[in-house]
Amino acid sequence: MYLNNYEERALEGEYGEALEIAYRILSSIGRLTGASHLIKISSAHVSGVSYSTIGDYGKDFLENVSLKARVSVPTTVNPAGLDAQNPYDFNLDNDYISEQTKIIEAYKRLGVVESFTCTPYEGFYLPPKGSHVSWAESSASIYANSILG
Prior knowledge:
Blueprint: H1 5-11, H2 17-33, E1 43-46, H3 51-65, E2 75-77, H4 94-110, E3 133-135, H5 138-148
Parallel strand pairs: 1-2, 1-3
């Protein structure tokens, strides 16, 4: 997969560990999917917010990377494994609430919009028609392809 000079330097760690990790992930996914190059995006929507889904390894990764990185485009997130405003309303285990809260706090440090929704196109940053987005949610992908084009 072709990387431009900036992307190559980022992959080599010249701009810090967080960008090196990001470009390692992006270039690996690109090679696996046969992508020819990376494209610029105008927004992102992140899956992998629930502690039930990402567990301790995902939580630890987010906590670590959120100490050094911030999102560079408007970014929303999928629902978490609890109601962030009322975490004790559903009789969840205190350990689960604690671990889920750490994930939410890591995403906040990264600078994401605290959307916690499957529909980032409703009530949050709406990218211009024709822009490229990276939205990890099935309904959001349909919206992006059908409405944004």
